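Here is the promised in-class demo. Please do not try to memorize the tokens; focus on the logic of going from shape to residues.
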């Protein structure tokens, strides 16, 4: 029997297809759209785009083992950790952190890549006879569609991985390169595709997948803002790479877009895709430099527009082109010839007679010497703008070279009693230690330091140059547990994390963290400091103390004598230091001489 969801999905699909077909019939174009596609694409199909999407999907399913668990692939070994970990560098631009990450980039590719592929064309622009174009493999449309285009995309992905800052993962850098390329040739079309069509496509996908979606209202754990979870540097790098490639291609073809259309398209796309969101980290906060970011985007939109649309007139005005007196080899030989003739005609006595014809010859010869134009005077305005874009690209990519060449220590809890070791991975729990992936170079910019501390579950591997806080302390305190996937090509292992704690009334929480793999017993890897309740009963204080695999209540009497007892079970009563403790549901109460007060409560998640 067909489910309600299946019926609704079919209705959605039929409605969209019918709407598209009807509008196509009403439009009645003079030239059918598929005929236009065939003039630039083999069979009117963007084969290169489909090949690239297939490769990305195959990496997710078979390299990251997404075929086993589509929602939870293996991620850690496929990030671009370091130049000393080639596997990560090679796979990062084609791998993804989750199914949502994958779908978002595939939809973006499906929307924008065909525009870039159409602009480039399977058929080379020279000549109209397609039979002549097939004589060379470089101009063969099938080779250009199935080999050249995918190869260039893979190359862009690898370059974006090498020069991306931090352990990036995802195809989004290449998607931004598609946009950078397409926006030069079709600025408004590309803008509409990225701002409207892409969102509509993702909404349609979600509607087909879940026609009726129910969202339950619930509290959410502490998390970073959306702009702080995006690889802005990698996106800007990809966009500039695609843009410069388009400048090279379309300048050679003699095409120049409308300056206004290109400028407005670049500006609006940069704002909509948050390329202005320059940010940095603090220990428990994120700093967004939105003012400087907006100013930079506005300036760069103008510069990249000039790199395509500016004239080829020299950047130096005609009156200022002659700069430094000088002479070419040809002119220098001519001057020397004039001087030689002058000396030969006057004889040797002419040197000692001031005002002779020799001086006159020398004066005339030097005065006739032409001025030499500098190389700068030959630089066109468009070339200067292109050089500025190249400089910006270097500034964006440059910091990644030092960061990716850094070797991670991989320490913090390598001892087996404080960590779980799986192959070359070490998983442990730390608090207030230096974040080795952020604090690579100790610098200070705009009052923000690069030294950042980390607290939470950390996965490290000296073999892979991996160091990452995978679950923060705040998130673990909210959820109470988590799972971490480690692995490599052909294998994966799940590591479980569990936190248990008791909160002292009026104070913080004493807690323990355990780690274990499937089939193994939980291993205690961290215990917090004791926490004293902010109450006093008959001069006695109560402290919650993590002790081994248990929690104990430590009673300190007025004479500083201490005694302790394990936190009682549900509805159990225990005694220590003259106080009686009773467990009621999730709370522990202390009684003495008719006085009863809560001293601790179990941490809930």
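The designed amino acids, position by position:
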């Amino acid at each position: 029997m067909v489910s309600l969801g299946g019926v609704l999905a079919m209705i959605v699909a039929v409605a969209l297809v019918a709407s598209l077909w009807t509008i196509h019939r009403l439009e009645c174009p003079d030239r059918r759209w598929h005929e236009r596609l065939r003039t630039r694409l083999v069979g009117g199909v963007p084969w290169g785009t489909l090949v690239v999407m297939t490769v990305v999907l195959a990496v997710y399913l078979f390299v990251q083992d997404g075929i086993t668990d589509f929602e939870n692939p293996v991620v850690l070994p496929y990030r671009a950790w370091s130049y000393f970990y080639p596997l990560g560098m090679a796979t990062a631009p084609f791998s993804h952190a989750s199914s949502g990450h994958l779908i978002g980039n595939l939809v973006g590719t499906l929307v924008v890549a065909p525009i870039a592929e159409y602009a480039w064309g399977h058929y080379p622009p020279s000549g109209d006879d397609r039979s002549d174009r097939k004589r060379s493999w470089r101009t063969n449309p099938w080779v250009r569609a199935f080999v050249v285009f995918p190869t260039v995309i893979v190359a862009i992905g690898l370059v974006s991985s090498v020069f991306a800052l931090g352990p990036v993962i995802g195809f989004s850098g290449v998607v931004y390169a598609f946009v950078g390329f397409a926006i030069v040739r079709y600025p408004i079309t590309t803008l509409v595709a990225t701002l409207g069509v892409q969102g509509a496509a993702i909404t349609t996908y979600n509607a087909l997948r879940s026609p009726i979606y129910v969202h339950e209202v619930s509290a959410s754990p502490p998390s970073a803002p959306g702009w702080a979870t995006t690889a802005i540097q990698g996106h800007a790098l990809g966009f500039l790479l695609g843009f410069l490639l388009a400048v090279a291609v379309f300048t050679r073809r003699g095409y120049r877009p409308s300056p206004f259309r290109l400028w407005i398209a670049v500006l609006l796309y940069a704002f909509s895709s948050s390329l202005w969101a320059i940010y940095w980290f603090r220990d428990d906060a994120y700093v967004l430099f939105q003012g400087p970011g907006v100013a930079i985007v506005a300036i760069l939109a103008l510069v990249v527009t000039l790199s395509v649309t500016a004239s080829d007139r020299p950047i130096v005005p005609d009156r200022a082109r002659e700069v430094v007196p000088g002479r070419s080899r040809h002119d220098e030989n001519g001057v020397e010839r004039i001087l030689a003739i002058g000396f030969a005609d006057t004889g040797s006595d002419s040197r000692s007679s001031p005002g002779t014809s020799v001086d006159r010859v020398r004066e005339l010869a030097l005065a006739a010497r032409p001025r030499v134009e500098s190389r700068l005077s030959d630089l066109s305005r468009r070339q200067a703008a292109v050089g500025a874009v190249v400089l910006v690209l270097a500034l964006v990519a440059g910091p990644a070279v030092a960061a990716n060449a850094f070797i991670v220590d991989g320490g913090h809890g390598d001892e087996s009693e404080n960590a779980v070791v799986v192959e070359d991975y070490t998983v442990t729990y730390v608090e207030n230690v230096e974040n080795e992936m952020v604090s690579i170079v100790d610098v200070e910019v705009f009052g923000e330091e690069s030294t950042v501390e980390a607290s939470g579950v950390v996965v490290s591997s000296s073999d892979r140059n991996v160091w990452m806080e995978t679950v923060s302390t705040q998130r673990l305190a909210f959820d109470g547990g988590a799972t971490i996937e480690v692995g490599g090509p052909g294998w994966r292992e799940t590591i479980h994390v569990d936190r248990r704690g008791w909160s002292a009334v009026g104070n913080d929480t004493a807690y323990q963290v355990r780690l274990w793999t499937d089939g193994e017993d939980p291993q205690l890897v961290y215990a917090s400091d004791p926490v004293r309740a902010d109450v006093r009963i008959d001069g006695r204080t109560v402290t919650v103390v993590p002790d081994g695999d248990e929690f104990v209540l430590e009673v300190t009497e007025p004479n500083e004598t201490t005694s302790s007892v394990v936190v009682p079970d549900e509805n159990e009563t225990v005694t220590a230091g003259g106080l009686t403790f009773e467990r009621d549901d999730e709370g522990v109460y202390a009684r003495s001489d008719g006085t009863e007060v809560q001293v601790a409560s179990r941490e809930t998640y």
